[in-house]
Amino acid sequence: MNEEGYLYGNKLSNLLILHMIYSLLFITTLASSSYCYIMVATRSNKRQRQSSTTVTRITDFPDTVLSSISSYLTQTSCLKFCLAISQQPDSSTIKAVMTQHYHKWDSIDFNDLKDLFGGSDITDDNLLWVLTCIDAVHNLRSLKLTNCVGITGVGMAPLVGSAVLESIDLSLVGSNKSPTIDPVPPISAEIVVPILESIISTEENELEQVTLPKKWRVEKSDILTNFLRKFGRVLVDREIDCCGCGEICGVTRTRSGAGSSLVCYDTDQNRYGLITFTCSGCNDNYCSSCQDNQYFPFCEVCEKFFCDRCADMNYCSNDNCQSRTSTCSKCVKMESW
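^ that's the sequence the OP posted. Answer follows.
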């Protein structure tokens, strides 16, 4: 190779570095890699048969260079890059890499990130790493934990005190799926509810939608009931407008007997633990009066409320039927598959 063919460590362009990074990520098993290295050839005399090489860690590059490199990466590729170069998601290196991407991580369904961890089930460690890496407490607005059936919830710690989180789905199941999971998942109300309480206690927080695990709605623990009562008051104080009449959504008992028209915390009700004023399809909010006057049914399969625009309902014609009384059309289609 002639002298012009060598790469000089102090003159590598960002694009050349990026090319090397992609090559490294392709051949490196992320789970077992602690660092990424670049082999850099040094200037040698033409008369010499051998050239010396130096090994440079990517983490040795200035943060400004790493930040520039990351701007060429997609969101998921950026996370792969971070996982390859450091196991410490709050390190200065990771922060430098993620600077260009923080604003993009406003919504996550962890079911979409399984490939990042080799296709295995998401663990609390995985959850903790990603939420810390993306600075979720300041950026994440919507969180879904679809199929994360092995977590206890300790990995959600980075969300403590979030003022930007608007929606969190802890049901652990996908859309139009029954929330009943067998075996019962280990996700713990004692661990997660204090995190949720820290969020609704944060000034000017935005949390409005919380979908709970069916397990918790069956257990009806005191810690959950207290949270639901507090959350209901927070929502009422927020004075959420009704999409039907424009009035403020209040606390009048609904036709369904769901207790509060915003959150059901009555342990004697079968809708305990549900947000009862929001359509699960379009997220429009409806006061109790509009729910009574309009079509706002409840699906017995996915256990969610829908407005008349989002789901046609199918009712059992047998008056003696003791099973499902109503099923949304989307769940009917899912079952037929």
